[in-house]
Circularly permuted ATP-grasp type 2 domain-containing protein (Methyloradius palustris), 474 residues
Amino acid sequence: MDTANKRPFDEMQLANDTVRDIYALYAEWLRDVPLAQLESKRLEAELLFRRVGITFNVYGETAGAERLIPFDVVPRILAADEWSKLSDGAIQRVKALNMFLHDIYHDQEIIKAGIVPASVLTNSQYRPEMQGIDVPNNIYAHIAGIDIVRTGENDFYVLEDNLRTPSGVSYMLEDRKMMMRLFPDLFRRYSIAPVEHYPQVLLNNLRAVAQPGVTDPVVALMTPGAYNSAYFEHAFLAQQMGIELVEGQDLFVRENAVYMRTTEGPKKVDVIYRRIDDDFIDPLAFKADSMLGVPGLLSVYQNGGVTLANAVGTGVADDKAIYIYVPEMIRYYLGEEPILANVPTYQLSKEDDLKYVLAHLPELVVKEVQGSGGYGMLVGPAATKAEIKEFTLRIVSNPSNYIAQPTLALSTCPTLVESGLAPRHVDLRPFVLSGKAVTLVPGALCRVALRDGSLVVNSSQGGGTKDTWVLNHA
């Protein structure tokens, strides 16, 4: 499983340097395009993205809090059968995770069965306020981002599940629009599945989870505000769905209902697609000093006066300590074998795993169980001796706060860099929507590590994005 020292799987070229069938038309086109033209298109894309205002906070950068996420003009292409496996596997996973969430907030059968430890109930993301609360259609994770990596022809692994407030879908949509604008001739060569209907599918699913008896539900998107790193996406999705973008101060609670202030007076809101973490949504229930939330919102939610997407308490299912148990959840709840495998994972709360990891830190990736965005992690092969020593002290002081995994040789895709086209590591985040049904649009956020040899693709760590083409036929 430790593939770090092998030649990474190349999405475009086979080991004998011949081009994979799905890239044949692209390679043929590429041979006739000067690198200077690709660079010109990249600069044009950057200018257009800047005009639209697509920015992202990159914490710790001295050049300013906000910058564009770099966009690469070389697409990642997936065959229909490859996408079918990814799609089926991601849907299967989200179904099981929703059943897990319903279970732990109700009868906790999976804990009684000894499959998931009772310690899940002391996880910081477990919300006792949700115990016994029924949510429409038993859906907790209405929008899920499943991070998938590839190490071989048919070797796909789930790296992590994002169920709280997964972001990045706006880049999937905007990258596609940009590619169609810059390279219309390429789209005439391929039959590429469309993604632009995502906002309508999302809206239909959100409307479908309104409380019973609501015939024409009003949906709003709740944002922390313009200073949030993903604010562009919040505004973009609200505009695309034709719904109001609101902040906590725009909403108020009255008689077991939530209203938004409008120029025509108060308007009842039935479904809130919230992009605010649990801790900040209601100062009466969680962080008392939160200026972002709505006082009394949790009480209305508990009493069935409004639907929140994603549900409060969903984060307990995307904690990296819970990730380990997802394959068993699939077997337990669905009676099926997992379509997509987990990356083998060491639990540092186990003595034998801890000993092994401490002895092999230079070979492993270590992550905080509640970390995200590429923060709080150690990539052993790229770490200095000082960093390994410091991380050893962190682990020893609190082993249960960490997991470890082999260093995977993530697949690479040709990417335009200063020296020309070069392989760079990529991952994939398809977005699974649960409402009327559990579905995916045939596309995903493809993140690319722009630094040579880097395995960290997170936008917050300087990664870029690519358009993902899912072909309509094999």
Notes: The first helix runs from residue 24 to 31. The CA atoms of residues 61 and 403 lie 27 Å apart. The first strand starts at residue 56 and ends at 57. Confidence is low (pLDDT under 50) at residues 59-64.
